[in-house]
Amino acid sequence: MRTNQGAYTAASSSLPTTVLTGRQLENFVSEILNNQSIPYEDEKNLQYDAYHPSASIREDFVLPNVRNPETTIYVTHSNPSKSRGHSNENKLHQALGELYLLKTYYPELRCIAFLGGPREKWTEYIPQAISFFYDGVSHAWDNDPAESLLQALDAPLKHSKFWTEETQLRKSIELSTNPQIAPNSFLRTNFYKQVIPEYLGITSPTAIYNEPLRFIAESAIDNDGAFWRHLHTGDSSRIWSERTYFNPLEACVALLLNKEQFAYEGGLGEDVNVHHNLLLEMGYSSASRKTDFLLEDAEGIPVYIQCKSAGGGQEGQLTKHITDRAREQIARSIIYRSTYRNGELISQPKNFRWYFVLDNKWRTPNHYPLKYLHILEIAGVDRVFPSDDIITDDFEVNPNSELAKELSRIGCKKIIY
Protein backbone atom coordinates (compact mmCIF):
# COMPACT_ATOMS: atom_id res chain seq x y z
CA MET A 1 0.00 0.00 0.00
CA ARG A 2 2.88 2.37 0.55
CA THR A 3 4.28 4.53 -2.23
CA ASN A 4 7.18 6.33 -0.55
CA GLN A 5 8.59 5.07 2.72
CA GLY A 6 10.35 8.34 3.53
CA ALA A 7 7.50 10.71 2.82
CA TYR A 8 5.88 10.36 6.23
CA THR A 9 8.84 11.82 8.14
CA ALA A 10 7.64 15.43 8.14
CA ALA A 11 4.17 14.43 9.31
CA SER A 12 5.63 12.25 12.04
CA SER A 13 7.61 15.15 13.45
CA SER A 14 4.50 17.33 13.44
CA LEU A 15 2.76 15.16 16.05
CA PRO A 16 3.12 16.89 19.45
CA THR A 17 3.69 13.72 21.50
CA THR A 18 0.33 12.33 22.62
CA VAL A 19 -1.75 15.41 23.31
CA LEU A 20 -3.70 15.42 20.04
CA THR A 21 -7.38 14.66 20.36
CA GLY A 22 -10.37 14.43 18.07
CA ARG A 23 -10.02 16.45 14.89
CA GLN A 24 -6.25 16.90 15.39
CA LEU A 25 -5.71 13.15 15.36
CA GLU A 26 -7.79 12.83 12.20
CA ASN A 27 -5.75 15.62 10.59
CA PHE A 28 -2.58 13.77 11.52
CA VAL A 29 -3.84 10.57 9.85
CA SER A 30 -4.89 12.57 6.78
CA GLU A 31 -1.41 14.03 6.51
CA ILE A 32 0.16 10.58 6.62
CA LEU A 33 -2.14 9.26 3.91
CA ASN A 34 -1.66 12.34 1.74
CA ASN A 35 2.12 12.18 2.01
CA GLN A 36 1.99 8.56 0.92
CA SER A 37 -0.47 9.35 -1.92
CA ILE A 38 -2.83 6.75 -0.52
CA PRO A 39 -6.38 7.31 -1.84
CA TYR A 40 -9.10 7.62 0.80
CA GLU A 41 -12.39 9.22 1.72
CA ASP A 42 -12.98 10.65 5.18
CA GLU A 43 -16.18 11.20 7.16
CA LYS A 44 -18.25 9.18 4.72
CA ASN A 45 -21.19 6.91 5.51
CA LEU A 46 -20.34 3.25 4.97
CA GLN A 47 -23.21 0.78 4.77
CA TYR A 48 -23.30 -2.06 7.29
CA ASP A 49 -26.63 -3.54 6.13
CA ALA A 50 -28.75 -3.54 2.98
CA TYR A 51 -32.02 -3.19 4.90
CA HIS A 52 -32.09 0.61 4.68
CA PRO A 53 -29.85 3.30 3.09
CA SER A 54 -29.29 4.78 6.54
CA ALA A 55 -27.98 1.51 7.95
CA SER A 56 -24.53 3.04 7.82
CA ILE A 57 -21.60 4.17 9.95
CA ARG A 58 -19.87 7.49 9.50
CA GLU A 59 -16.32 6.26 9.07
CA ASP A 60 -13.26 8.35 9.87
CA PHE A 61 -11.35 6.96 6.88
CA VAL A 62 -12.24 4.50 4.12
CA LEU A 63 -9.56 3.35 1.69
CA PRO A 64 -9.84 3.81 -1.22
CA ASN A 65 -13.53 4.83 -1.07
CA VAL A 66 -16.97 3.78 0.22
CA ARG A 67 -17.91 2.25 -3.14
CA ASN A 68 -14.98 -0.15 -2.96
CA PRO A 69 -13.95 -0.35 0.69
CA GLU A 70 -10.74 -2.25 1.34
CA THR A 71 -9.56 -0.70 4.62
CA THR A 72 -11.10 1.48 7.32
CA ILE A 73 -9.28 3.53 9.94
CA TYR A 74 -11.13 4.10 13.20
CA VAL A 75 -9.71 7.08 15.13
CA THR A 76 -10.40 7.53 18.83
CA HIS A 77 -8.70 9.01 21.87
CA SER A 78 -8.94 8.87 25.66
CA ASN A 79 -8.36 11.81 27.95
CA PRO A 80 -10.98 11.60 30.72
CA SER A 81 -10.87 14.28 33.40
CA LYS A 82 -11.84 11.79 36.10
CA SER A 83 -11.87 8.00 36.28
CA ARG A 84 -10.57 6.09 33.27
CA GLY A 85 -12.68 3.00 33.82
CA HIS A 86 -16.16 3.70 32.45
CA SER A 87 -14.93 6.05 29.73
CA ASN A 88 -12.36 3.52 28.56
CA GLU A 89 -14.87 0.66 28.59
CA ASN A 90 -17.08 2.73 26.32
CA LYS A 91 -14.15 3.20 23.94
CA LEU A 92 -13.73 -0.56 23.70
CA HIS A 93 -17.45 -1.16 23.26
CA GLN A 94 -17.74 1.40 20.47
CA ALA A 95 -14.67 0.09 18.68
CA LEU A 96 -15.84 -3.52 18.92
CA GLY A 97 -19.46 -2.75 18.01
CA GLU A 98 -18.42 -0.87 14.88
CA LEU A 99 -15.92 -3.60 13.97
CA TYR A 100 -18.64 -6.26 14.18
CA LEU A 101 -21.08 -4.39 11.94
CA LEU A 102 -18.41 -3.95 9.27
CA LYS A 103 -16.70 -7.34 9.46
CA THR A 104 -20.00 -9.23 9.21
CA TYR A 105 -20.96 -7.23 6.11
CA TYR A 106 -17.59 -6.90 4.32
CA PRO A 107 -15.75 -10.20 4.88
CA GLU A 108 -12.50 -9.00 3.23
CA LEU A 109 -12.37 -5.58 4.88
CA ARG A 110 -9.22 -4.66 6.78
CA CYS A 111 -10.07 -2.66 9.92
CA ILE A 112 -7.41 -0.47 11.54
CA ALA A 113 -7.63 1.54 14.77
CA PHE A 114 -5.58 4.62 15.61
CA LEU A 115 -5.61 5.41 19.35
CA GLY A 116 -4.65 8.80 20.75
CA GLY A 117 -4.53 10.68 24.00
CA PRO A 118 -1.93 10.16 26.75
CA ARG A 119 -1.13 6.48 27.28
CA GLU A 120 -1.70 6.84 31.02
CA LYS A 121 -5.28 7.94 30.34
CA TRP A 122 -6.10 4.51 28.94
CA THR A 123 -7.01 1.61 31.22
CA GLU A 124 -4.19 -0.82 30.56
CA TYR A 125 -6.14 -3.65 29.00
CA ILE A 126 -8.29 -1.53 26.65
CA PRO A 127 -5.64 -0.82 23.95
CA GLN A 128 -4.53 -4.46 24.26
CA ALA A 129 -8.08 -5.71 23.69
CA ILE A 130 -8.64 -3.38 20.72
CA SER A 131 -5.34 -4.58 19.27
CA PHE A 132 -6.49 -8.19 19.64
CA PHE A 133 -9.73 -7.68 17.75
CA TYR A 134 -8.64 -5.21 15.07
CA ASP A 135 -6.47 -6.25 12.13
CA GLY A 136 -3.97 -3.51 12.89
CA VAL A 137 -3.55 -0.82 15.57
CA SER A 138 -1.37 2.27 15.80
CA HIS A 139 -0.97 4.56 18.82
CA ALA A 140 -0.14 8.23 19.15
CA TRP A 141 2.31 7.24 21.91
CA ASP A 142 4.31 4.89 19.65
CA ASN A 143 7.93 5.94 19.08
CA ASP A 144 7.01 6.64 15.45
CA PRO A 145 3.22 6.73 15.16
CA ALA A 146 3.30 7.49 11.44
CA GLU A 147 5.44 4.44 10.73
CA SER A 148 3.30 2.22 12.94
CA LEU A 149 0.16 3.42 11.14
CA LEU A 150 1.67 2.61 7.73
CA GLN A 151 2.65 -0.82 8.99
CA ALA A 152 -0.89 -1.38 10.26
CA LEU A 153 -2.23 -0.64 6.76
CA ASP A 154 -0.38 -3.73 5.55
CA ALA A 155 -1.62 -5.97 8.36
CA PRO A 156 -3.15 -9.34 7.44
CA LEU A 157 -6.79 -9.99 8.34
CA LYS A 158 -7.36 -11.51 11.79
CA HIS A 159 -9.88 -14.02 13.10
CA SER A 160 -11.21 -14.96 9.65
CA LYS A 161 -12.98 -18.10 10.87
CA PHE A 162 -14.59 -16.21 13.72
CA TRP A 163 -15.92 -13.49 11.44
CA THR A 164 -17.19 -16.04 8.90
CA GLU A 165 -19.19 -17.80 11.62
CA GLU A 166 -20.44 -14.51 13.08
CA THR A 167 -21.54 -13.45 9.60
CA GLN A 168 -23.64 -16.60 9.28
CA LEU A 169 -25.07 -16.01 12.75
CA ARG A 170 -26.01 -12.47 11.84
CA LYS A 171 -27.68 -13.62 8.61
CA SER A 172 -29.89 -15.96 10.65
CA ILE A 173 -31.39 -13.05 12.62
CA GLU A 174 -34.78 -11.86 11.40
CA LEU A 175 -35.06 -8.09 11.84
CA SER A 176 -38.33 -6.49 12.90
CA THR A 177 -40.43 -4.70 10.30
CA ASN A 178 -43.00 -2.95 12.52
CA PRO A 179 -41.68 0.48 13.63
CA GLN A 180 -44.04 0.47 16.63
CA ILE A 181 -41.89 -2.19 18.26
CA ALA A 182 -39.20 0.45 18.77
CA PRO A 183 -40.44 2.30 21.87
CA ASN A 184 -40.75 5.98 22.59
CA SER A 185 -41.48 6.31 26.30
CA PHE A 186 -40.24 8.84 28.80
CA LEU A 187 -40.38 7.41 32.30
CA ARG A 188 -37.42 9.24 33.84
CA THR A 189 -38.37 12.61 32.37
CA ASN A 190 -42.03 12.37 33.33
CA PHE A 191 -41.17 11.04 36.80
CA TYR A 192 -38.83 13.99 37.31
CA LYS A 193 -41.40 16.52 36.16
CA GLN A 194 -44.54 15.06 37.74
CA VAL A 195 -43.48 13.15 40.86
CA ILE A 196 -40.31 14.78 42.20
CA PRO A 197 -41.68 18.35 42.69
CA GLU A 198 -44.24 17.19 45.26
CA TYR A 199 -41.53 15.82 47.53
CA LEU A 200 -38.75 18.43 47.30
CA GLY A 201 -37.59 19.33 50.81
CA ILE A 202 -39.15 16.29 52.45
CA THR A 203 -37.59 15.23 55.77
CA SER A 204 -38.30 11.47 55.81
CA PRO A 205 -38.94 8.82 53.15
CA THR A 206 -41.84 7.53 55.24
CA ALA A 207 -43.81 10.55 54.05
CA ILE A 208 -43.42 9.55 50.40
CA TYR A 209 -46.59 7.95 49.10
CA ASN A 210 -45.25 7.06 45.67
CA GLU A 211 -43.75 3.58 46.04
CA PRO A 212 -40.97 3.84 43.40
CA LEU A 213 -39.77 7.17 44.80
CA ARG A 214 -39.88 5.86 48.37
CA PHE A 215 -37.85 2.83 47.25
CA ILE A 216 -35.30 5.12 45.56
CA ALA A 217 -35.01 7.34 48.63
CA GLU A 218 -34.61 4.43 51.06
CA SER A 219 -32.01 2.79 48.83
CA ALA A 220 -30.04 6.04 48.65
CA ILE A 221 -30.17 6.50 52.43
CA ASP A 222 -29.03 2.91 53.05
CA ASN A 223 -26.02 3.41 50.78
CA ASP A 224 -25.22 7.06 51.58
CA GLY A 225 -26.32 8.06 48.09
CA ALA A 226 -26.40 11.70 47.07
CA PHE A 227 -29.99 11.43 45.80
CA TRP A 228 -31.52 11.67 49.27
CA ARG A 229 -29.49 14.79 50.13
CA HIS A 230 -30.67 16.46 46.93
CA LEU A 231 -34.30 15.52 47.56
CA HIS A 232 -34.14 16.57 51.20
CA THR A 233 -32.57 19.96 50.36
CA GLY A 234 -34.87 20.50 47.38
CA ASP A 235 -32.04 20.64 44.83
CA SER A 236 -33.98 19.51 41.76
CA SER A 237 -31.21 20.21 39.23
CA ARG A 238 -28.83 17.85 41.03
CA ILE A 239 -31.53 15.22 41.25
CA TRP A 240 -31.71 15.12 37.45
CA SER A 241 -27.95 14.70 37.09
CA GLU A 242 -27.71 11.99 39.80
CA ARG A 243 -27.59 8.65 38.02
CA THR A 244 -26.93 5.96 40.62
CA TYR A 245 -30.23 6.15 42.51
CA PHE A 246 -32.41 8.52 40.50
CA ASN A 247 -33.14 5.71 38.10
CA PRO A 248 -36.91 5.18 38.19
CA LEU A 249 -36.62 2.54 35.48
CA GLU A 250 -34.34 0.26 37.53
CA ALA A 251 -36.36 0.96 40.66
CA CYS A 252 -39.62 -0.07 39.00
CA VAL A 253 -38.11 -3.25 37.57
CA ALA A 254 -36.75 -4.18 41.01
CA LEU A 255 -40.14 -3.54 42.62
CA LEU A 256 -41.87 -5.55 39.89
CA LEU A 257 -39.56 -8.53 40.44
CA ASN A 258 -40.10 -8.27 44.20
CA LYS A 259 -43.87 -8.16 43.86
CA GLU A 260 -43.87 -11.18 41.55
CA GLN A 261 -41.44 -12.96 43.92
CA PHE A 262 -38.86 -13.68 41.22
CA ALA A 263 -35.45 -14.75 42.51
CA TYR A 264 -32.82 -12.38 41.15
CA GLU A 265 -29.47 -10.74 41.70
CA GLY A 266 -28.68 -7.10 41.02
CA GLY A 267 -31.04 -4.19 41.47
CA LEU A 268 -31.08 -0.44 41.86
CA GLY A 269 -27.44 0.67 41.92
CA GLU A 270 -26.31 -2.97 42.33
CA ASP A 271 -25.19 -4.45 39.00
CA VAL A 272 -24.18 -8.11 38.94
CA ASN A 273 -21.49 -9.96 36.99
CA VAL A 274 -22.58 -11.89 33.90
CA HIS A 275 -21.95 -15.64 33.78
CA HIS A 276 -19.32 -15.63 31.02
CA ASN A 277 -16.79 -12.95 30.16
CA LEU A 278 -14.44 -13.34 27.19
CA LEU A 279 -12.14 -10.59 28.47
CA LEU A 280 -11.56 -12.37 31.78
CA GLU A 281 -10.89 -15.55 29.81
CA MET A 282 -8.23 -13.65 27.88
CA GLY A 283 -6.50 -12.72 31.12
CA TYR A 284 -7.75 -9.17 31.62
CA SER A 285 -8.50 -9.53 35.32
CA SER A 286 -9.95 -6.04 35.75
CA ALA A 287 -12.40 -6.37 32.84
CA SER A 288 -15.60 -7.25 34.70
CA ARG A 289 -18.88 -6.94 32.83
CA LYS A 290 -22.21 -6.61 34.58
CA THR A 291 -25.94 -6.56 33.97
CA ASP A 292 -28.69 -4.77 35.87
CA PHE A 293 -30.65 -7.91 36.82
CA LEU A 294 -29.84 -11.61 36.65
CA LEU A 295 -32.46 -14.36 36.87
CA GLU A 296 -32.67 -18.01 35.79
CA ASP A 297 -35.35 -19.62 33.67
CA ALA A 298 -36.90 -23.05 34.26
CA GLU A 299 -33.94 -24.76 32.55
CA GLY A 300 -31.31 -22.87 34.53
CA ILE A 301 -30.41 -20.60 31.61
CA PRO A 302 -29.28 -17.12 32.71
CA VAL A 303 -31.74 -14.30 32.05
CA TYR A 304 -30.26 -10.80 31.79
CA ILE A 305 -32.48 -7.74 32.12
CA GLN A 306 -30.90 -4.46 31.10
CA CYS A 307 -32.49 -1.03 31.66
CA LYS A 308 -31.29 1.39 29.01
CA SER A 309 -32.07 4.99 28.15
CA ALA A 310 -31.53 6.44 24.69
CA GLY A 311 -30.11 9.61 26.25
CA GLY A 312 -30.97 13.00 24.84
CA GLY A 313 -31.85 14.75 28.12
CA GLN A 314 -35.31 15.76 29.22
CA GLU A 315 -36.41 16.57 25.69
CA GLY A 316 -35.32 13.21 24.27
CA GLN A 317 -33.35 14.78 21.43
CA LEU A 318 -31.43 12.48 19.07
CA THR A 319 -27.80 12.44 20.17
CA LYS A 320 -24.69 10.34 19.75
CA HIS A 321 -25.63 8.58 23.01
CA ILE A 322 -28.23 6.35 21.38
CA THR A 323 -25.74 5.26 18.71
CA ASP A 324 -23.15 4.45 21.36
CA ARG A 325 -25.62 2.65 23.62
CA ALA A 326 -26.99 0.50 20.81
CA ARG A 327 -23.59 -0.53 19.42
CA GLU A 328 -22.35 -1.21 22.95
CA GLN A 329 -24.72 -4.17 23.10
CA ILE A 330 -23.05 -5.76 20.07
CA ALA A 331 -19.73 -5.58 21.90
CA ARG A 332 -21.30 -7.06 25.01
CA SER A 333 -22.80 -9.86 22.95
CA ILE A 334 -19.34 -10.83 21.68
CA ILE A 335 -17.90 -10.63 25.20
CA TYR A 336 -20.76 -12.64 26.75
CA ARG A 337 -20.82 -15.37 24.05
CA SER A 338 -17.38 -15.88 22.57
CA THR A 339 -14.54 -17.92 23.99
CA TYR A 340 -10.76 -17.75 23.83
CA ARG A 341 -8.81 -20.96 23.46
CA ASN A 342 -5.13 -21.44 22.60
CA GLY A 343 -4.87 -17.89 21.33
CA GLU A 344 -7.91 -18.29 19.07
CA LEU A 345 -11.16 -16.31 19.16
CA ILE A 346 -14.07 -18.75 18.91
CA SER A 347 -17.65 -17.89 17.97
CA GLN A 348 -20.35 -19.38 20.17
CA PRO A 349 -24.15 -19.21 20.08
CA LYS A 350 -25.92 -17.21 22.78
CA ASN A 351 -26.53 -19.30 25.91
CA PHE A 352 -28.56 -16.74 27.83
CA ARG A 353 -31.81 -14.83 27.47
CA TRP A 354 -31.51 -11.08 26.99
CA TYR A 355 -34.29 -8.59 27.67
CA PHE A 356 -34.12 -4.80 27.51
CA VAL A 357 -36.43 -2.26 29.10
CA LEU A 358 -36.00 0.94 27.09
CA ASP A 359 -36.60 4.52 28.11
CA ASN A 360 -36.65 7.69 26.04
CA LYS A 361 -36.76 7.94 22.24
CA TRP A 362 -35.69 4.73 20.50
CA ARG A 363 -38.04 5.03 17.50
CA THR A 364 -35.72 7.31 15.58
CA PRO A 365 -34.71 8.77 13.14
CA ASN A 366 -37.96 9.41 11.31
CA HIS A 367 -36.69 8.08 7.98
CA TYR A 368 -35.46 4.84 9.61
CA PRO A 369 -37.33 4.41 12.92
CA LEU A 370 -36.09 0.83 13.38
CA LYS A 371 -32.40 1.71 13.11
CA TYR A 372 -31.43 1.26 16.75
CA LEU A 373 -33.83 -1.57 17.45
CA HIS A 374 -32.22 -3.42 14.54
CA ILE A 375 -28.80 -2.93 16.10
CA LEU A 376 -30.11 -4.43 19.36
CA GLU A 377 -31.55 -7.36 17.39
CA ILE A 378 -28.23 -7.87 15.58
CA ALA A 379 -26.63 -7.98 19.04
CA GLY A 380 -28.97 -10.83 19.96
CA VAL A 381 -31.50 -9.13 22.21
CA ASP A 382 -34.52 -11.42 22.55
CA ARG A 383 -37.16 -8.83 23.30
CA VAL A 384 -37.52 -5.17 24.24
CA PHE A 385 -40.10 -3.56 26.50
CA PRO A 386 -40.98 0.14 26.71
CA SER A 387 -40.55 1.74 30.11
CA ASP A 388 -44.28 2.49 29.97
CA ASP A 389 -44.88 -1.24 30.32
CA ILE A 390 -43.74 -1.41 33.92
CA ILE A 391 -45.50 1.65 35.31
CA THR A 392 -49.05 2.94 35.50
CA ASP A 393 -50.30 6.39 34.57
CA ASP A 394 -49.96 7.47 38.20
CA PHE A 395 -46.34 6.25 38.35
CA GLU A 396 -46.86 3.09 40.36
CA VAL A 397 -45.59 -0.36 39.34
CA ASN A 398 -47.80 -1.97 36.70
CA PRO A 399 -49.20 -5.33 37.95
CA ASN A 400 -50.02 -6.33 34.35
CA SER A 401 -46.55 -5.77 32.94
CA GLU A 402 -45.63 -7.67 29.77
CA LEU A 403 -42.15 -8.11 31.22
CA ALA A 404 -43.54 -10.00 34.21
CA LYS A 405 -45.68 -12.13 31.90
CA GLU A 406 -42.63 -12.98 29.79
CA LEU A 407 -40.57 -13.96 32.83
CA SER A 408 -43.41 -16.18 34.00
CA ARG A 409 -43.77 -17.70 30.53
CA ILE A 410 -40.14 -18.87 30.50
CA GLY A 411 -40.46 -20.16 34.06
CA CYS A 412 -38.08 -17.83 35.85
CA LYS A 413 -37.37 -19.16 39.30
CA LYS A 414 -39.19 -17.62 42.23
CA ILE A 415 -38.43 -17.20 45.89
CA ILE A 416 -39.88 -20.04 47.97
CA TYR A 417 -40.93 -19.03 51.47
Explain this structure to me?
The chain is of the alpha/beta class and 417 residues long. It has two domains: 9-171, Restriction Endonuclease; 179-185 and 248-409, Trna Endonuclease, Chain: A, domain 1. The chain is 37% helix and 18% strand. It contains 16 helices and 15 strands. The protein has helices at residues 9-13, 23-35, 85-103, 125-133, 145-152, 160-171, 187-194, 196-199, 211-222, 226-233, 236-241, 248-259, 278-281, 320-337, 371-379, 402-409, and strands spanning 41-47, 56-65, 68-77, 110-116, 136-139, 184-185, 265-266, 272-273, 290-291, 293-296, 302-309, 339-341, 344-346, 353-361, 383-386. The strands form four sheets. Strands 6, 7, 10, 11, 14 and 15 form a six-stranded mixed beta sheet that branches. Helix 15 (371-379) links the parallel strand 14 (353-361) and strand 15 (383-386). Helix 3 (85-103) runs parallel beside helix 4 (125-133), helix 3 (85-103) packs across helix 14 (320-337) and helix 9 (211-222) crosses helix 12 (248-259). It is globular. The chain starts with 8 loop residues before the first helix and ends in an 8-residue tail after the last helix. Mean pLDDT is 91; it is low at 2-18.
Q: Topology, please?
A:
Blueprint: H1 9-13, H2 23-35, E1 41-47, E2 56-65, E3 68-77, H3 85-103, E4 110-116, H4 125-133, E5 136-139, H5 145-152, H6 160-171, E6 184-185, H7 187-194, H8 196-199, H9 211-222, H10 226-233, H11 236-241, H12 248-259, E7 265-266, E8 272-273, H13 278-281, E9 290-291, E10 293-296, E11 302-309, H14 320-337, E12 339-341, E13 344-346, E14 353-361, H15 371-379, E15 383-386, H16 402-409
Parallel strand pairs: 3-4, 4-5, 11-14, 14-15
Antiparallel strand pairs: 1-2, 2-3, 6-14, 7-10, 8-9, 10-11, 12-13
